[in-house]
Amino acid sequence: MTQPSVPPSGGPLWKSVARTVDKLQRDYLNNPYGRDGSDARAALAELRKASAFEPADNPMGLQKIIGLLNPPLNEDFMGRGEKPSASEVALYRSLSLFGVHMQSAKKPMHTSDVSFAQACGQLMPRTDSKSFKHRFDALQLATDDASRAVHLRSLVSLLRSYELAFDYGRFSEDLRALVNPNRKPGVLLRWGRDFARGARQLYDAQPPEDLDTTTNTN
């Protein structure tokens, strides 16, 4: 039985997203044949469907995602005009990708212990390192939110295949910060460090003779 993640120490968006996905995965994994599990499966299916659309082009999907949040999104983060706010786009991206991540999952895909980039780093030694590093680099170099979303879906699908979890609350905060030119460099710097840290963890945990020395960790 999965246990609740440690409550996050971030801001309102972080907490709202983290607690929402934490409950969804507990209901999905712990009570698959009960009412809560059925509701969670339906919600995750809706989230997966939303991941194929842009938030501005999917107002019904955005409405459903906002409605899923528990606790609700703080009014200060809600949009006021005819376009989604940066916070609404970030929660849409993070929750819809969580739906992709949880497809057929047998274990939690949200954890408060590992960041998104760190999980990507942990994956690199397990797969084709050159190909995967190129994918992560393409994400880092993405110049707009829509192209970044394409790379994120590809990476999250790979993380799902290898059952590697990360903190969706922290992830949502990062996605919101990436659209701010003043904050973007700091997020990308931290992602680069976390990626390198995650890639080293597997190597540090194994004796040298157990490692594939042909794997490129650069």
Describe the protein's architecture and organization.
This is Type I-E CRISPR-associated protein Cse2/CasB. It holds the Pfam family CRISPR_Cse2. It comes from Corynebacterium stercoris. The chain contains nine helices and no strands. The longest helix has 22 residues, at 184-205. Helix 2 packs antiparallel against helix 3. It has 218 residues and is mainly alpha-helical. The protein has one domain (12-206): CRISPR-associated protein Cse2 (Peroxidase, domain 1).
Structural class: mainly alpha
Output the number of helix runs. 9
Classified by CATH, the class is Mainly Alpha
Shape annotation = globular
CATH homologous superfamily descriptor: CRISPR-associated protein Cse2
Q: What is the percentage of strand-forming residues? A: under 5%
Please summarize what this structure is.
This is Type I-E CRISPR-associated protein Cse2/CasB. With 218 residues, the chain is an all-alpha fold.
Give the topology.
Blueprint: H1 12-30, H2 35-50, H3 59-68, H4 86-101, H5 116-123, H6 129-141, H7 145-161, H8 168-178, H9 184-205
Question: Any descriptors?
Answer:
218 residues, mainly alpha, Peroxidase, domain 1, 9 helices, disordered C terminus
